[in-house]
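Hi team, as promised in this morning's meeting, here are the two structures we talked about. I've kept the exact order from the run log so nobody has to guess. The first one is mostly here for context; it's the second one we should focus on when we meet again. Sequence first, then the predicted structure tokens.
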Amino acid sequence: MCGISGLVLCRNKIGGVSLAFAMTKMNDALYRRGPDDQGIWLDGENNIALGHRRLAVIDLSEKGKQPMRSACGRCVIVYNGEIYNYRAIRKELEKEGVSIDGDSDTAVLLASIVKWGIKSSIKKAHGMFAFSLWDCDDKVLYLVRDRLGEKPLYYGYSGNQFLFASELKSLTSFPEWRGEIDRDVLTLQLRHGYIPAPYSIYKGIFKLLPGSILKLPLEDLQYRKELNPGGQSIDKNSLSPQRYWSARSVAETAVNNKVHYTKEAAVNALQDLLSGTIKNQMISDVPLGAFLSGGIDSSIVVALMQSQSINPVRTFTIGFHEARFNEAKHAKKVAEHIGTDHTEMYVTSKEAMDVIPGLPDYYDEPFSDPSQIPTYLVSKLAKEQVTVCLSGDGGDELFAGYERYFWAMSVRNIIESLPMMARNTFASILQRVPIPIWDMLLTTSYPVLPKRFHFHQPGEKLNKLGDLLRTKDFELMYRRLISQIGDPEKYVLGSTEPKTVLSMKKEWPQLSDDLETMQYLDTVSYLPDDILVKLDRASMSISLESRVPLLDHKIVEFAWSLPRELKVQDKSGKSILKDLLYKYVPRELVDRPKMGFGVPIGEWLRGGMQEWAEDLLDPNMLKKQGILNSESVGKMWVEHKSGKRNWEYQLWNILIFQSWHQKQISQI
């Protein structure tokens, strides 16, 4: 795992600063992604530079050093990631007479590109990657990102200079960096807690979309032709990414091509696919382990790892003393049954809160999924023993694991069965009762209610149900369901919320049912822009490589090919994953309600974090900044402190932006 960066100058010098100095500054900013080695490559004639920071995982020798130039001298590459089937690709190349120096996947990828071209080479590769390749003969720069978006890649112009890097901190280290906060994009962060691709928090800086290649001829870069990050041509001078793999195409192809396995055959097919993928992803020249929460996804990954390992797999779990956030006790039981070398650490609220000041540095742009805190803590714990960790992320999107899918379909049934007037009346009744009263009434009824009705914050859920009932159709209802702030323009002064795949139905595939639509939307937005961002930045902030075997593209394609009944049973998802897991772990150890990987943000904001929040939400400071609406924010903060409403997630989004913004100001 590594960090990459690069720049193309439209002038010979940057304000009197040399190309080498600028590249060194950008490269050094990525030292956490690659503490083991670093290198830069310069082409002074064409005013282009490439930088690389290395976390040595495969081929620890000098032969794995980057930037790497092809044997023929034509191509230079900087590469971040892992290609797990690189040895099979190497054998294919050697059969065609290609000699490769060294045993790194980078060397194999570079040789394959020279032999077969970029698109053909990527289609053969199973893995996670983001890389840049400079073709010295054709004078073309290529930027490439993996299929599901596991590895990040930002690009854009600062003034007239073209920059790209694994993280924004590298771009902001450019000596003539000019970065302006995009208020429109900020509304997306307040709505979702993350910034969907292709946007970034800075105007003119974009994320390369997953599964894309961006071809950038030097002449076009130096004449600063218009970048079109969405991939739709806006004029003949725009530079647009091209898809080599598309989740939409996979989903649409699967609609009329479902494979009708028996349950046993489907479980066996998944077992073969996932076992092979995990075997490949366990290849490492450094110590390797796995995150284990005790849930379905991480447990199946660990079980299949242990089934293929002679020695106990090292597993890691973070525990909390607050019972409703603690999965460590479940993880421990699973680890004991499977026979792993398990390490757990319980952290206090103070230890968790101590992570918060570092978040703006780890994530570079406002990112406010609260589970970023335990993800960082478990990564830090794992790094004490290993350099590579496998994770169970991706199972919820692929196999319909989120509870909100089934809640959304229940609400949809109400919407479809009642006229609008009746829905509005029902919504008014739900929202007329104060949230604290609902909480009191329902929680006191828990002793006589079935456990499936024991909701955390039931009053908030009923209030949100009232909002959902007022929507006109399923699409608007689901967008509201996944929104933390439904009217973000109210909070960001002078803003207009941009369109995303979540708000443009014309970009959605025609699928079998609403469940598949929700799975698709999460796969192309929430998964790459929240879940994978959280994992990548948290782990790389302490130089730990994370791998996600469930997101091998062959497993993704297999999951989409399955009919619904193999994923969903009794209004619960991940049926096929559970059936596979029960081969290794008793049902009673893992068959429990999904807990999630959270922290008690709402309680912290009324306790140990209140002073921190007060400083960041000071009305006078907000007015001076002129970005957020101080009255709207202030009202939300007062209601939360008083207990009238629980605005924990909404306030967390705002506080994370404020914390990030304060860091930017301090660096000026």
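And here is the second protein, the one for discussion:
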Amino acid sequence: MKKLLSVVIIAVLSMSMLLTGCGENSGSDSNSGEKVLNFGCQMYSDGVVNSVLDENAGWNAMRYGITEALFKFNDKMEVEPWLADSYTVNDEHTEWVITLKKGIKFSDGDLLTPSKVKATFDYLKKNGPSGSAKPEKYLEFEAQVTADDDANTITIVTSKPYANLAGQLAHPTMAIIDVEHTKNFDNGVIGTGPYMIEKFKGVGVGYTMVKNPNYREDVPYDKVNIMFMGDASAKTMALQSGQVDLVENITNVSDIKEFQKNKDFTVDIASGVRCGFSWMNFKGILENKTLRQAILMGIDNDTICKSKTIGGLYTPGFSVLPSTLNYGYDKLKNPYEYNPEKAKKILDDAGIVDTNGDGIREIDGKNIELRYVSYENRLLNDFSNAHIQYLAEIGIGCKADYGSSDDQWSKLAAGEYDFNNNNWTTVGTGDPFAYMANWATDSTYCSYSNPAYDKLYNKLKGEMNPKKRADLIFQMQQILVDDAVAIIDGYYNSSMIYSKKVGQAHIHTADYYWLTTEIKPAS
């Protein structure tokens, strides 16, 4: 309880510091005519905006309106040109010629050219291996990239076919930056987006953003105060009090319902393509398949998703891909439906028993004490708490290790966990190919390895036929279900909530796009 109070106090103090330090009013400043937006949002990776450092840092840069990519997704998750104007691809899907839009400039005034695009990809190739963003998931490092500034084209020749390279290049990790003039890749990358950083106010505090004077369209706000608020209650209080005008992803169900009833606020919800899931670390005690199977049978996923604290924000499920996607969810078979008595029996039969009567089962003479890494976002800690309680009922000990999103990422990358709870966009490249790489031997974070899965994954890389790709993805899902690779929280719906000071805002299905020119002040 003390920790929760501390988090709330810190969040409120951070808001007060921002408001006092900036001195701006929301909407239009009556003295200067300056249009200002106060935006409360979750902090990821200490607020860093370097695409290569880790996946979240790249998302930050795009979400804050700093960077853009060659392509983007509409709300049907269809790929559309963004910085690109058009592209052509050969029959083998190994040579892509991308024509850029003309006249686009970076926020420093430099023209976007094919050479600048190539410099970005070269930077990702050189620096990617040191971070956890893994840009090679989206464009292989073996690809040959050629820039023709006179023709305004980029040519990408790959060693293997890509069914959807445009979608791969739409991922935030692949956003285009002015590598030559970016001096601080942590908190000052130069992009082509509508906003740019004026000041980083510190970890846990936020940014002051200003309009990009070289942007190709009208930018609605002169200034945006990004205020980091990890706690959903802090977001609610700040929005209700008028300290912020806009927030993303309030996760208290009762608060969302109250905002929906209140005519002074608008709630915009995107259809869910996110999956909340806990990795299970195969490099450790969870290498034991019987233990993993019992864990899944010991957790009542449906009841958790329908609880008062979570109900409506997550749809229950058992696969790593949401049931709303067209990858055969209804045909999948779940061998680990909730059955605590069966979970206890398979543990007993495997000799995983409690010999000293302390309520915790043992393996090799030691109590099972699993380490559960999680963080406060999208109700992840709520799920983790519930999982820990369910596991205790079947004799499996588990301790919470909760921190920031940065803690979660670093421990995931280092393999320092038994469970690691997080929430991923599943079709972040237009289909699940990059997401399914999370369980391929060469690119997994959890030391999972299955030759049958790898064979299907490698076949998926080169398969161009949509129906055949869907069938491969279906088969891959069933292997992961059978192998009990993860605890599935459920499938999440994203949201934005805003006051009457904002005339329009929208949360996208691919929630790479937060601070966009679609967000406008009330007239």
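Starting points for discussion:
The first strand starts at residue 27 and ends at 28.
Residues 1-24 have pLDDT under 50 and may be disordered.
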